[in-house]
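Morning run. Coffee first, then this:
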Amino acid sequence: MRMIIAILLLLPCQIAFSQQRPNVILVFADDLGYGETGPYGQQKIKTPTLDKLAAEGIRFTQFYTGTPVCAPSRCNLMTGRHAGRAYIRGNYGLPGYKENEVENGSFPLPENTVTIASLFKQAGYATGAVGKWGLGNYDNSGDPLKNGFDYFYGYYDQRHAHNYYPTHLWENGRQDSLQNPVIDVHPGPGAPLSPELYKGADYAIDKMTAKASAFIRRHQHAPFFLYLPFTLPHAALQVPERGVKDYIAAFGETPQYTQDGYVPVEYPKSTYAAMVSYLDEQTGIIWKLVKELGLDDNTIIIFTSDNGTAAGKSTNASFFNSTGGLRGFKQDLYEGGIREPFIVRWPGKIKAGGVTGHIAATYDLMATFAALLGVEAPEHDGINLLPVLTGEKNAPQHPYLYWEYHARGGQVAVRMGNWKGVRTGLAKDPGAPWQVYDLSADPAETKDLAAQQPTLVRQFNAIVQQEHRPPVRAEWDFFNPQRAGIAR
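And here it is:
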């Protein structure tokens, strides 16, 4: 009897403690440009949820991804490592992929990787991931269930994720069948132009939102971390018709059947806009559920993206001003390829309507979450952003940010204060010159000041020497052309 009374006396304290620890929901968009949402100046695409999220939280104007493509940027986020030290540095897919037949996943995280999810799990949180994983398969070391997550639903393989009407998605290593035919989303030139051939009954994003909602309901009485790497607005351009019709009228768009290596699209501008709005809508559904369950005041919602918008006819970047006037696209280390939206809402902790120019990156979330949870983070390259979020003085600053990317000829970039250095074409020309830009005066990187800044060039060279580590795959090693098999 005494033991029962002791437990009852202790129980309210335990409940109060669990309620004090905030839930965290991290929405991670796919190929979303810096300027493609309302809070970042978008004029043609409607994003009312994100508008409200920014109005009630804080918006970063100088926030970056770690790498300008999908898989390595997710590795940067998950492990707190920048591109020069990260384990995964490119979109290498394990050999063998055919819709509904062979699906080996992407290059996996190694065993014993500590991720941001691992920190939450260590702190007693329920952890779930719903969307595109891209860091391994269910049958290897990259399985999210082996990397800090209790639950996973979505795509393991990035190539599988190109299709929004797949025959199946995955739930904890088992196929969840969808009511869709086998669709080739890369049909090639001469493919039939009928849009109906590239649609099904079950839209993958709807399934993801339903599973994410179920996860929140299951864990509403204890703290949870929910990672939502939605695939929107990455190609192929596929979205339910209800979202496209209003944009067709608004844009006065006529059928064009643009392809860009994916499915033919009858109304590319309207379809792309509808995909961004659909992303906004799904974020809103999740937020509404949080409110309905009485969790809103104790839930941190974060919104960002993995890299900049893809260049191509389908995305119509110039029509939408997708980069917000910045130079470059996905796969570029210019600002348009790496600068991302970053919005955080945390009632009672973050002042509403805040805007900050604090320089930060996705790999800062490892240090930030460790500080939030009071746990020790593994070795990482980030800084704790909690002081920035809560408006404290003397928040930590990065001495510099570092990027490298093997594709498009081999690239490196450094940002140090307002100065940005970029080198391109390094695989063929290891002596390729630095381009130097003053982002405070020239955010679009149009005026190369390298000739006037020899001291900066020397500093940038020293930073590259310090931050680069040889990668595990030869094709990522553009600093060593012989190993990578690249002819100079």
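The chain has 13 helices and 17 strands. Good start to the day.
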